[in-house]
Automatic annotation (TrEMBL):
5-phospho-alpha-D-ribose 1-diphosphate binds at residues 79, 82-83, 87, 89-92, 107-115, 119. HAMAP family: TrpD (MF_00211). Signal peptide: none annotated. Catalyzes the transfer of the phosphoribosyl group of 5-phosphorylribose-1-pyrophosphate (PRPP) to anthranilate to yield N-(5'-phosphoribosyl)-anthranilate (PRA). In the C-terminal section; belongs to the anthranilate phosphoribosyltransferase family. Pathway: Amino-acid biosynthesis; L-tryptophan biosynthesis; L-tryptophan from chorismate: step 2/5. SUPFAM superfamilies: Nucleoside phosphorylase/phosphoribosyltransferase catalytic domain, Nucleoside phosphorylase/phosphoribosyltransferase N-terminal domain. This is Anthranilate phosphoribosyltransferase. Anthranilate 2 binds at residue 165. Its cofactor is Mg(2+). Homodimer. It comes from Sporosarcina newyorkensis. The keyword Endoplasmic reticulum does not apply.
Length: 343
């Protein structure tokens, strides 16, 4: 690891094969923890490249548990996190809305690392535990068309890295890689990063990884989600083409709202927010969810425009279908828990 640490500390980018070798060392129990910390921080200070991100993603996915549900056009709407805005859990809430609108959602997620409440923390508070075996996740995907894939269960090699990331306490390349290592073969994806300068490179990584259609967003105000607070920057990957575009809330029939209007809190508070939105409580948080779910519908090819997607997302909530998906996943989770107790 010293060799690659020295290169990165000199602000030199690693070639794809160099990063693959460094990634293997990151996952090796023989590699000194302090060296891993220094390498991840140096990489962040230098600024990661698309080749470095793609190489780490390839190695990390090679160690993932196998999860191969029946063929479907699956979507992941997991963002990179680490934007420091401390919103409520937008993508987790939007996942239920997408599922209620007919999208097959395989959402990657984790506990809090660089946020106040990670997706799994909120799911726990909603009554959806993380103690699934991979066959449970696969059955839930096929039965309900939505499952939350708890990263530590999917990526056993990440246990040590997760503890190291907690020690670092700020975003690293693993934030960028997280959405790219879903064990389900994704044809479509909607993901966000808080770096507008990197969205084209990130979209090119998705192309390298074989996505047919995907959207990357860097939101107004530094969010890794689409925001109501100004102009959002996007890149659409469509069958190999990379198409940049931008939009504001007004462009899709929604109202401007500042970031302060969508602040989150603890896992319990954010879970209450998710339930309120899925029960149809209107306001900036509702609008933020339907904006992001609408973009997800567009990324998945379910609608021809994002504005149409926003309308479909609103209907998913107001019809009760999104809430039904939440309750179905809660019920499934409880069944798994009861079986574990009996055994």
């Amino acid at each position: 690891m010293e060799k690659y640490l020295s290169i990165v500390e000199k602000k030199r980018h690693l070639m794809y094969e160099e990063m693959r070798e460094a990634a293997e060392l990151l996952f090796s129990e023989q590699t000194n923890e302090e060296q891993i910390i220094q390498f991840l921080i140096a990489l962040s200070n230098k600024g990661e490249t698309s080749h470095e991100v793609a190489a780490l993603a390839a190695v990390m996915k090679s160690y993932a548990m196998d999860l191969t549900p029946t063929s479907a056009r699956y979507l992941d709407n997991c963002g990179t996190g680490g934007d420091g805005v401390n919103t409520f859990n937008i993508s987790t809430t939007a996942a239920f809305v997408l599922a209620g609108a007919g999208v097959q959602v395989a959402k990657h997620g984790n506990r809090k690392i660089s946020s106040a409440a990670g997706s799994q923390d909120v799911l726990d508070a909603l009554g959806i535990h993380s103690d699934y075996q991979t066959d449970d996740m696969q059955r839930l995907l096929e039965q309900e068309g939505i499952a939350f894939l708890f990263a530590p269960a999917i990526h056993p090699k990440m246990k040590r890295i997760g503890a190291i990331r907690n020690k670092i306490g700020k975003p690293t390349i693993f934030n960028l890689v997280g959405p790219l290592t879903n064990p389900v073969s994704l044809e479509t994806q909607f993901t966000g990063i808080n770096r507008p300068d990197f969205i084209m490179e990130y979209a090119s990584v998705l192309r390298m990884l074989g996505r047919e259609r995907a959207i990357v967003v860097s939101g107004a105000g530094g969010m890794d989600e689409a925001s109501l607070a100004g102009q959002n920057e996007f890149v659409l990957l469509d069958h190999g083409d990379l198409i940049p575009f931008s939009l504001t809330a007004d462009d899709v029939g929604l109202e401007y709202a500042p970031l302060s209007a969508i602040k989150g809190g603890s896992a319990v508070e954010n879970a209450a927010t998710t339930r309120a939105i899925l029960n149809g409580v209107r306001g900036p948080k509702f609008d933020t969810v339907v904006l992001n779910a609408g973009i997800g519908l567009f990324a998945n090819g379910r609608v021809k425009t994002i504005q149409e997607g926003v309308k479909r997302a609103s209907d998913s909530i107001l019809s009760g279908r999104a809430l039904e998906k939440l309750e179905a996943v809660v019920a499934f989770s409880e069944t798994i828990r009861q079986k574990a107790v009996v055994q």
